[in-house]
Protein 1
Amino acid sequence: MQIAGFFSSSTPVLKKYKASAAQAAGTIVLRSAAGASGQFSTSAVNSFADALGLCVDNGEYLGAPLSYSTTQGDDEAVFGVVVNPDAILRIQMVTGATGTSITSDTIVTASSNGLTAVGGTSVASPDMDEGILWYLSGANVGKSRKITSTSSVTATVIVPFLANAVGDTYCYAGLNVGLTGFTLTTDLQKVRTDMADSTGGTGTIVDMELNGVNDSYILAVLADNVFTTAT
């Protein structure tokens, strides 16, 4: 996860905050929980309300990164956090809790009218309705459409693709522009495509980069930031 830009400016506001636990760069951090030792807490895979921003670096002392410690005499761990409420986050799209390549599928029943993609895996559980589908090969390579309904292994669209053919490959995700809610991987750095839309933490998708199974991304903003509005 990284900063892709800002809605209102090109200048990141970077603050150094005290850690409450071990922390990795490229993760969302939250307002410190009650009783926590530092100034921020770590997000969860499906909850990032009261966000401070994106942790982008580990503090250093004499050129060496600092680790969180409660041992007397150890140097205090501080991390750099970009706190712009309008920051746009670029997050890699993956499959599964640990973040493997997006699972692609293959057309098994051709659709001459371009309104369905019938593959070998379920798009109804978890339900990909209102998500996105895009082709990796065949006549529709590089094209995408919003999924408007699902049934078992069939995803249906309203704006037709070109006719597809048996063997064409495609990807799908329970994610789409304007939807609020997505789920992160266990390392808190990537976004899962295999979850129903609008489930998870309070982030809103601004745009999508739909490429291959290892290089597709969402661009998103944190919808619950302590410097704008907080729950």
Note: The CA atoms of residues 70 and 215 lie 39 Å apart.
Protein 2
Amino acid sequence: MKKLTEKETIIIYAGLINALIDHIEADFRPSIFNRQSLKMKSKSVLDELLKVEADMYKGDPSGEMTDQYLDAGNLMITFFKLGIEMADMDQVKSEGLNTQLNILFKNYGINLDTNF
């Protein structure tokens, strides 16, 4: 795997943390976790990442990174759910779906070179 740029790393971290916060807020089931504490700690990490983002984009009002990590976080949850579904499939179906996804991604110029 190629080394990620600082921007890509911050987007990934912020996207994952934001997706976690969204999941905590949307999950109403009883849990062994102290959700409020977990949410506060996650928001603290997100705040630190946003400080790095602000420093990286001084003088650039585009807000590009913030939009990217919000979109990426939502997509990560969707692909995580897909991964759970694929893990529950028999191996032949899972490999077939993986092949089809890789073909679809390549048609859009996306080269992940990975198995789902």
Note: The mean pLDDT is 82.
Protein 3
Amino acid sequence: MATIAQTLENNARVKSLKKIAQTKWVGNIIHENMDKCLWAINFYSNNSGHYNPTATRIDGLTGWFMINQDGSIFCEARVIKEEEKQYKIEYMTNEAWNEFENLYCKFIEEI
């Protein structure tokens, strides 16, 4: 299991993610295991895929979130275990991303 860096940015990300409604996550990409989901998310991100991605659960949030090499949370996507050998990748909708960014900025200013 990955360790999330204890930073102000990650704290603001978690607070912001907790405010995003469950209905604002969408996705239908299914893989047979967590590793394949993480590789897909990693290649989608700007991480370029040159390391072995890891994920963790965060108290109060649904699903698994990828942890970047520097310990930061990749918050645009999450993985949901549907059934045995069925893991679904979900991404925030555009509306959710806008809401997330506004909340993140608000929480960063408060810290």
Note: The first strand starts at residue 25 and ends at 31.
Protein 4
Amino acid sequence: MKAEELKKTLRPLVKALVKEAMQEELSTVISEIIKQTAGSTPIVERKQPTIDPKLQQERMIAKQKAESERKKMLEEISKKSYGGINIFEGTTPLARGGEISESRSSTPSAAEPLSGVDPHDPGVDIGGLLKLTGGWKQIRWKD
């Protein structure tokens, strides 16, 4: 038998044996790693979203402009409607309204899901959701 014929015959056999041996070793290593990490908590890297300084400044300017326009409109409305008197000055929103009758319980019902929440609670900021998804185009329904 020539060397070339021997090479053609033995090469696939050796390749299959090496592959089988590596798979056995790899499965052993993976199972040991899984056993060791099963009880530990995963490490999660949290990155703050980076906002372009130019975009951030534009947003701040737009917010200030909108706030000043809002104040200006409220002042105009107040002057025209109530002779310049702020009728809600010094008031705060109610945390919960009064009871209409005794048939209503003090626990929140399905019709009043936020009845136990403080009116001054800032809630959850969902402003960054569109950045994560890539905007409204990514959210729309697929046909």
Note: The mean pLDDT is 78.
